[in-house]
Amino acid sequence: MAKIRMTTPLVEMDGDEMTRVLWKMIKEILLEPYIELNTEYYDLGLPYRDQTNDQVTVDAANATKKYGVAVKCATITPNAARVEEYKLKEMWKSPNGTIRAILDGTVFRAPILVKGIQPYIPTWTKPITIARHAYGDIYKNVEMQVPAGAKCEIVCTDANGNETRKVIHQFGESGGIIQGVHNVDASITSFARCCFTYALDKKQDLWFAAKDTISKTYDHRFKDIFAEVYETEFKSKFEEAGIEYFYTLIDDAVARVVRSDGGYIWACKNYDGDVMSDMLATAYGSLAMMTSVLVSPDGVFEYEAAHGTVQRHYYKYLKGETTSTNSVATIFAWSGALRKRGEMDGNDELMTFADRLESATIRTIEEGVMTGDLAAMSTLDNVKKVDSETFLREIAARL
Length: 399
Ligand code: NAP
Ligand code: MG
Prior knowledge:
Layout: E1 10-14, H1 17-31, E2 39-43, H2 46-51, H3 55-67, E3 69-72, H4 80-85, H5 95-103, E4 106-111, E5 128-132, E6 142-146, E7 151-157, E8 163-170, E9 176-180, H6 185-202, E10 205-210, H7 218-241, E11 245-249, H8 250-259, E12 264-268, H9 270-284, E13 290-295, E14 301-305, H10 311-318, H11 328-345, H12 348-366, E15 369-370, H13 372-375, E16 384-385, H14 388-398
Parallel strand pairs: 1-2, 1-3, 3-14, 5-12, 10-11, 10-12, 15-16
Antiparallel strand pairs: 4-5, 4-13, 6-9, 7-8, 13-14
Helix pairs in contact: 1-10, 1-14, 3-5, 6-7, 11-12, 12-14
Magnesium ion binds at residues 274, 278.
C-alpha cells in the first residue's frame, strides 16, 4: 500500500511517563505503517524542558501558530516532588498554561462515546463539549476578612485620577468577608470568538449561560459581548451552517443540559467550567475517554488527551510489569490533528484515515476488547481485558 502523504507538517509535542510510552507505540503501530508522517517534533518531556530552560515549550507553541495544527502528549506539571525526582533547575510552569497564554486559546473538552460504557445520565447519547473561559473571575480575586463595623467600598481610579466609589457593605456587629473580582473585555471577546469558531468547525449549536439577572453589570457584560461578536462576525455563518447560538441563565442551562441528549457546545464562565467539566467527565464514564482541544481565536488547533501522564501505570511499566493503560484519548488527539491538517491542506486521504482510525478504535471496544479501566465499567458480556500494546494491535487489525 502506498503511504498517505502530508504536504504540510503538523507540530508534534512529546510528553512524559506512561503517555510517552503510549505515544511511541501509537505512532509505530497505528500511524507510521499508513502515513508518511510529516511532523515538526518538539520534546516536551520534563528532562528536555529542564535542559532548555523550558524554551522548547515556547518554541512548540510558536510553531503551532505557524503551522496551525498541533498534537500534544500529556506532560508533567512539576511540583516539589517532581523537582526532587527529576533534579530540576526550577519548578517549571505548566506547559499547557504556557501554550495557552501564547495562543490565547480556549480549551474544549469532549467525551468519546462507545456502546457498552453507559453515561450516568442515560439520555446523553451524544457528546456534550464544554468550553471553559480560562481567565479572571474568582481565579484572579482579591479578598479580605474584615472586622465588625468596617465600611467596605469598591474604588475605581481612572487614568486621569478620577475616583468612582460604591459601597459593598457597611458591616454591623458582625465582621465578615469581601472579595474583588475582575475580567477584561478583550479576554471575553477572544473567548467568545474561540467558541463561535469551534461551533462552526463542529457544526454544533453553541450555548452560553451566565447569571445576568443578578449580576446586572458583570455577568451582563459577558452576555453583551457574546451577542455582539455573534451579530457582527458569526450570525450569517451560523445560519449557513444550520446551527444556533443561544443564551440562557446558568440555572436554566443546567436543567436543560440534564434533560438533553447532548450534541452541542456549552460555553462556561471560568468557575462554571471548572465545576461542570468535572461533573461531565465523571457522568460520561472515564477521564481516559475525554479529548481536549485548544482553539485560538484566529483558528489554530492543538489536540490532546484530557488526562495526565498516568504515573502509577508508568512505575509498573518501569518494573517490567504489564500495564493496561487506555490510549483512546491520545489516539483521538492524533486523529483530530490529522483530520484538521487534512482539512486545511485539502488532503482527503488524510481526513479519511482519521475517520477510519477513530471507527476502528471504537469498534475494538464495542467488540469487547478494551483496557482495564473500561473493562471494569463495561456492560457488554464478552469483555476481554487486554494490555496496552495488545489493545493497539487489536485496533490495527481492524484498521
Ligand atoms: P492522571 O495521569 O490523569 O491519572 C490519574 C488516574 O486516573 C490514574 O492513576 C488512573 O487510575 C486513571 N487514568 C487516567 N488516565 C488513564 C488512562 N489513559 N488509562 C487508564 N487509567 C487512566 O492524573 P494524575 O495522576 O493526577 O497526574 C499525573 C501527572 O500528569 C502529573 O504530573 C500531572 O502534572 C500531569 N497532568 C498532565 C495533564 C496534561 O498534560 N494535560 C493533565 C493532567 C495531569 P488508576 O491508577 O486507578 O488506574
Ligand atoms: Mg475542576
